[in-house]
Amino acid sequence: MDQGTLEPQRQAFLVETEWLAEHLSDPHLRIVDMRGYVRSVEREESDGTKVQDTHYVGARDEYEQEHIPGAVYIDWSSDIVDHDDAVEAQIAPAERFAEVLGRLGIGNQHLVVAYDSHPASQFSTRLWWALNYYGHTQVVVLNGDSPSGNANSVRSPAPFQPTSQRPLQR
Question: Which residues are 44's β-sheet partners?
């Protein structure tokens, strides 16, 4: 398969910072900052067995310091998880997921561009997966290594108004 054949498929999943900078004022675009971390701490049980405890944390403070103009923040470790599930960080039920997105002005009619600061886009791809899981396929991941990328030089659009994001059933 040559590069020309792969390009249309790639564009279905990724956008470049230059593309985003050119489209920041598009009213059907929503940008979501998904920065966060997985912190692991190794400890030793009384029987000498080594165990690793994992903690999921968001990075709202980093978003507040610097983010792409017009971006909203979703804390993947608390905003879109099921707090009643015994397993930490499981996806929120459809109604809660839709409520969070709607409150942030993200509706079914929007193209969502997700980004984070992880080298492999670990958290933005989680949002990509979650939106697709609930039937919202208009989502791409920003291909780049900087939270502000080239979009920083473009004037920020007006804040988004809440919208109704109907819960999609699987």
Answer: 50
Check: CB of residue 30 under 8 Å from CB of residue 111.
Answer: yes
Type of residue at 132: N
Q: What would you report as the CA-atom Rg of the chain, rounded to the nearest whole angstrom?
A: 17
> Would the CA dihedral through 147, 150, 153, 158 be positive or negative?
negative
Identify the residue whose tokens are 């879109």: 80
Q: Which of 95, 99, 96, 129 is nearest to 112 (CA)?
A: 129
Q: pLDDT tens for residues 53-104?
A: 888 888 999 999 999 999 999 998 899 999 898 888 889 999 999 999 999 9
Using CA atoms, how far apart are residues 135 and 97, in angstroms rounded to an integer?
Answer: 12
Burial 33-68 (b: 16+ CB within 10 A, else e): bbbbbeeeeeeeeeeeeeeeeeebebbbebbeeebb
Q: Indicate the SS3 state at residue 103.
A: helix
Phi-psi region of 140 (alpha: psi -120 to 50; beta: other; left: phi over 0): beta
